[in-house]
Design a protein that fits this description.
By secondary structure, the protein is an alpha/beta fold. It has two domains: 3-131, Response regulator (Rossmann fold, 3-Layer(aba) Sandwich); 145-346, Methylesterase CheB, C-terminal domain (Rossmann fold, 3-Layer(aba) Sandwich), CATH 3.40.50.180. The protein has 13 helices and 14 strands. It has helices spanning 12-23, 37-44, 63-73, 86-98, 119-131, 145-148, 174-183, 204-214, 265-270, 273-276, 293-301, 319-325, 335-346; strands spanning 3-8, 28-34, 51-55, 78-82, 102-105, 165-170, 192-197, 218-221, 232-235, 241-244, 250-253, 280-284, 305-309, 331-333. The strands form three sheets. A seven-stranded parallel beta sheet has the order 8-9-7-6-12-13-14, with helices on both faces. α3 links the parallel β3 and β4. α2 (37-44) runs parallel beside α3, α3 packs parallel to α4 and α7 (174-183) packs across α13 (335-346). The protein is elongated, with a radius of gyration of 20 Å. Mean pLDDT is 91; it is low at 139-158.
Length: 349
């Protein structure tokens, strides 16, 4: 049976374009379209749908509010379609936390005449969403103003480059998973953190800012020259590979994609063993494909430790499954135990 899709967008032209791209696939059937969130919710009462593509910004009932109602009343895999603006990326990060499986930026704004340039990606996102395991929306964390505005300053007792690194790789479902991990990390974590989340350019800054508001460690989108320091997490920017030099400082590049990915998890992981030896903890979270397997093998060979997310808590159990099946995982854990386990493991070094 084909994947039954509902396309929700306030633009009739965009609904037509999205519908045409998806309907060309033999395994996808666009069964309904809706002009806004209210229209979508009404039609969901009448039609069976497997996946929804949902515009982020719409009149009457916007994408975020619509998503919240869908997840609260009749959970269905949702792929958000977003504009590459600060507002659009901020809303998209919230949408992923509220239960959206994935997202895709429109290439040229709300009315993207060139939508066909991301046609293959759109089709793959819908297919991935259909396979995804829906997770309960996360409890939203409310932090006081002091915490939200916290500046970064190295703790005097941990000043200078860290001698222990935690490297985390994730893809589909990763933003929500990473939120859960970071909630468990203390400000005085005795390790630096690097994160490679498969995410397009224009969204990683909003993602880093969101993690920073939720976490006690300092989180930022990585820039050239940033140093790996205790209690600080650096997120690989979209469309850049992230490597680390001999001074334990970040070096970004736009070398060709690896496994069609930039950033690529393996690229970052492979540069770490010469710098940190066995003082590494590798973590692979939910995601499609096998990115991270080669890098994790190098971490293990150097004497580092490896954590893989378990099947039950993974939105897509592919990347962590490879780590497990290739015998690389020291620990296979549900997402709500990974953060606390990282903290305990850092105390072993």
């Amino acid at each position: 049976m084909p994947i039954r899709v509902m396309v929700v967008d306030d633009s009739a032209f965009m609904r037509k374009l999205i519908g045409e791209i998806l309907s060309k696939q033999s395994d996808i059937d666009v069964v309904q379209t809706a002009r806004n969130g209210a229209d979508a919710l009404e039609k969901l009462e009448q039609f069976e749908v497997d996946v929804i593509t949902l515009d982020v910004e719409m009149p009457i009932l916007g994408g975020l509010e619509t998503l919240q109602q869908i997840m609260a009343t009749r959970p269905i895999p949702v792929v958000m379609l977003s504009s590459v603006t600060k507002r659009g990326s901020d809303i998209t990060m919230k949408a992923l936390s509220y239960g959206a499986v994935d997202f895709l930026p429109k290439p040229s704004g709300a009315i993207s005449l060139d939508l066909d340039t991301i046609g293959d990606a759109l089709v793959n996102k819908v297919r991935g969403a259909y396979q995804a395991k829906l997770m309960k929306p996360q409890v939203q964390v409310h932090l006081d103003k002091t915490h939200l505005d916290k500046p970064y300053s190295s703790s005097p007792s941990f000043a200078g480059a860290s001698n222990l690194v935690i490297v985390i790789g994730s893809s589909t479902g990763g933003p929500r998973a990473l939120e859960q991990v970071f909630l468990a990390l203390p400000a005085d974590l005795r390790a630096g953190i690097v994160v490679i989340q498969h995410m397009p350019k224009g969204f990683t800054r909003s993602f880093a800012e969101r993690l920073n508001t939720l976490s006690h460690v300092y989180v930022k989108e990585a820039e050239n020259g940033d140093r790996i320091e205790n209690g600080k997490a650096l997120i690989a920017p979209g469309n850049f590979h992230m490597e680390v030099d001999n001074g334990k400082r970040i070096r970004l590049n736009q070398n060709p994609p690896v496994q069609f990915l930039r950033p690529n998890i393996d690229v970052t992981m492979l540069c770490l063993p010469p710098l940190f030896g066995k003082r590494m903890i590798g973590v692979i979270l939910t995601g499609m494909g096998r990115d991270g397997a080669t890098g994790m093998a190098a971490i293990k060979q150097a004497g580092g430790l490896a954590i893989a997310q378990d099947k039950a808590s993974s939105t897509i159990y592919s990347m962590p499954r490879v780590i497990f099946e290739e015998g690389l995982a020291d620990y296979v854990l549900p997402i709500d135990r990974i953060g606390e386990s990282i903290v305990k493991l850092t105390n072993r070094f």
